[in-house]
Specification:
mainly alpha; about 60% helix
């Protein structure tokens, strides 16, 4: 009987994932900011978090009146 020399599809995927992990772990960055930018570009935002962020930053709001304008009743000529 001949031994199979072909890898199964699952074994090929595992091998590819291992190679990718090894390549990623060998990456070096010049500084922390570069590392954070790389991580942000390669990390997907979960949909729930994206919705909450959109909701919290959505829509223009009216600027609050300064404390001194409230105290003195606005601007007087």
């Amino acid at each position: 009987m001949k031994q199979q020399t072909k890898l199964s599809e699952q074994q090929q995927q595992q091998h590819a994932a291992e190679q990718q992990t090894q390549q990623q772990s060998a990456r070096e960055f010049a500084n922390a900011e570069e590392m954070l930018r790389y991580d942000a570009a390669h990390t997907p935002v979960p949909p729930v978090i994206a919705q909450r962020l959109q909701k919290s930053t959505g829509g223009p709001t009216e600027p609050k009146t300064s404390w001194w304008k409230r105290l003195f009743g606005g601007t007087h000529p």
